[in-house]
Design brief:
By secondary structure, this protein is an alpha+beta fold. The chain contains 16 helices and 23 strands. Strands 3, 4, 5, 10, 11, 15, 17, 20 and 23 form a 9-stranded antiparallel beta sheet that branches. A 3-stranded antiparallel beta sheet has the order 13-12-14. Helix 1 packs across helix 5.
């Protein structure tokens, strides 16, 4: 246990020493729930993103993209015979609005630049306009993957009786939690936290089990109402004053990740062999995080790299191009001429004009063609100017990372996994800014995907159509609907064995449905997920909270490693008490409450983030 210096004696973390909804004075990485709202992108641009994602899933794509013969075959697939490409077929972008040679040429030029980047970094960005997803099949080696499969099975799965397996509530016995942050989280009003700012290391944390002061549970109304606090603009339901997932502390002073406080629910002694393996995945994830976080940045109205700029619909009417604004200008002139008329005459004239305008509109609408947008000429400099120096340096002060290991198990009796819901990770007081998922073991399952969507600035759409009588063009071009949420699907990333995926928490994501390949035998998919706490905002971690598990504490007592205990505590052990520090039964009950809260959080995020598109005129 490390003691704090005099200047550090009071712990200052959201919920302990600071309000739960505290926001630091400096910049923070963007979050979907704190107002991140990029420019909308057209359906055709998103089809280009989908095609580039699909092409970079092809084996040796970084070499093949420079082979003109292979590129010609890809052109046939993309332009003339859609949609055969992996992770493209579900999205109907191309079949609805076409995919032409100009779009394909732009994609190939951009992928060639991506290949140069990949040769140096060994990962590639996809869906990159305002945010980006990073993927790699090589930053984690095959030999390491096999070692992780072996050690994880040996320490977390083998020999565990069915009665002790922790099937995730509500998963119908398909999702097996091996290490999950929702079990034994930090609980305001129940969990203990070390007094005087002391911190725990890996080797001394078990001896501190049950020590510390109970954390209070309250909102700070003064800071909530402060005009300086951006958090005040959002519903309190986005924060929790009951629970917080606990990250571990990770140090990088020697250039490599070193976990220096226990991973919640991963025993620091008995399961210690997993720690260095998880550190290696952290090392692999950090460059991907730095790239995507630098790309997203800290501006809630981010720069957006648009391959197509199409502010308002344009049509062909007979032999000429027609912009809806022209009709609006004519109408404005007519209305100005009638401005001084008497009220009754003005009403009659206005009604006549309305009917005349409607008739004129109907006639025009029957003989018009919407002009679909085309990509601007590709220029690498355009991209570099938007995101110049975008890489973030996040590891200087160490990181806080929340760890999860979970399996999806399918059987002949339950051969299909239905998929998940759209969500961002964590409650707002956990300040998760990015996620990395490593798919380390897949057996006998069909291809599975992780879908992504993002909010878009609905006001920008409305401004683009303001004063027009036809909003169908905007709806068609951008794939939005009047009075519906302004959510734009970006596409989906293949989650194959050995792949590492990283993405910022500005994007909503969901696990897509998948099933058994051979339905006569079982199959599984196993993941290691890492949730990065915003380095600008440190939260309560396992360095501050002694282990809360009764079984860990009881094991230490029985083995005599904690030291002499009061008689009453010895009696508790003798009677197999299960409530000190927190027993499994209570922990699972608390998890149920946590899950109910987070289910509500998903709906609150949808309400807070995805504004409805409203073309009403003002």
């Amino acid at each position: 246990m490390e003691s704090a210096t005099d200047g550090e004696r009071r712990l200052q973390r959201p919920g302990v020493g600071l309000p739960i909804d505290h926001k630091p004075d400096g910049p923070i990485f963007c979050s979907a729930v704190l107002g991140w709202s990029p420019q909308p992108s057209t359906v055709r641009e998103r089809s280009m993103l989908a095609v580039m994602n699909a092409l970079t899933d092809k084996p040796d794509w970084e070499r093949k993209v420079f082979d003109d013969t292979i590129v010609a075959r890809w052109r046939t697939e993309a332009v003339y015979a859609p949609p055969p490409l992996n992770s493209w077929s579900e999205w109907t972008f191309t079949t609805r609005q076409g995919f032409d040679d100009a779009m394909f040429d732009f994609c190939i030029a951009e992928i060639r630049d991506k290949a140069t980047f990949y040769a140096e970094k060994r990962f590639v960005r996809v869906f990159d306009n305002a945010a980006a997803v990073a993927k790699s099949d090589v930053v984690v080696s095959a030999s390491f993957r096999q070692e992780l499969v072996r050690v994880a099975a040996e320490l977390l799965e083998d020999g565990v009786p069915d009665s002790k397996k922790d099937w995730h509530p509500g998963s119908d016995g398909q999702v097996l939690d091996l290490v999950h942050p929702s079990l034994f989280p930090f609980v305001y009003g129940r969990s203990r936290i070390l007094e005087n700012g002391c911190t725990l290391g890996l080797d001394d944390c078990l001896a501190a089990a049950g020590r510390g002061e109970t954390a209070s549970r309250s909102w700070n109304k003064k800071i909530w109402g402060s005009k300086k606090n951006v958090c005040r603009y959002w519903d309190k339901s986005l924060w929790s004053n009951r629970f917080q997932w606990l990250p571990c502390e990770v140090d990088f002073t020697e250039g490599k990740a070193r976990i220096i406080s226990y991973i919640n629910n991963l025993h620091p002694i008995r399961q210690r062999a997993l720690y260095p393996l998880i550190e290696q995945v952290m090392d692999a994830a950090v460059p991907l995080w730095e790239e995507i976080l630098g790309y997203t940045g800290t501006d809630r109205r981010p720069d957006t790299y648009l391959r197509m700029v199409h502010d308002s619909p344009y049509y062909i009417y007979g032999d000429r191009y027609y912009d809806d604004d022209e009709d609006e200008d004519e109408d404005d002139e007519d209305e100005d001429e009638d401005e001084d008329d008497e009220d009754e005459e003005e009403y009659d004239e206005e009604r006549w004009e309305t009917n005349s305008r409607a008739a004129r509109r109907e006639k025009l609408d029957s003989n018009r063609e919407l002009i679909l947008p085309s990509p601007k000429p590709y220029a690498q400099d355009d991209r570099e100017n938007v995101f110049k120096g975008c890489k973030a340096n996040i590891r200087q002060q160490g990181l806080q990372i929340i760890v999860k290991l979970a399996n999806i198990h399918l059987t002949p009796d339950k051969p299909d996994y239905p998929g998940g819901s759209w969500h961002v990770e964590g409650m707002s007081n956990e300040w998760i800014c990015a996620t990395a998922i490593y798919y380390y073991d897949c057996d006998n399952v069909t291809e599975s995907y992780l879908g992504f969507r993002q909010n878009a600035d609905s006001e920008a759409l409305v401004q683009g159509a303001e004063g027009q009588y036809d909003y169908g063009g905007i709806e068609y071009l951008y794939g939005v609907r009047q009075e519906e949420a302004c959510a734009q699907n970006l596409g989906r990333v293949l989650t194959q064995e050995g792949r590492l995926i990283a993405f910022p928490n500005v994007l909503q994501h969901r696990v897509e449905p998948f099933g058994l390949q051979d339905q006569s035998r079982p199959g599984h998919r196993k993941i290691l997920a890492l949730f990065l706490v915003d380095p600008h905002q440190r939260i309560i971690s396992t360095a501050n909270v002694p282990p809360q598990r009764h079984d860990w504490w009881a094991e230490e007592v029985v083995n005599g490693r904690i030291g002499e205990l009061p008689d009453e505590l010895t009696e508790m052990i003798t009677l197999s008490a299960d409530d000190w520090p927190i027993g499994m039964e209570e922990a699972k009950e608390l998890r149920e409450h946590l899950m109910v809260e987070r289910t509500g959080h998903v709906h609150h995020v949808d309400d807070a983030v995805f504004d409805a598109v409203n073309f009403c005129e003002h």
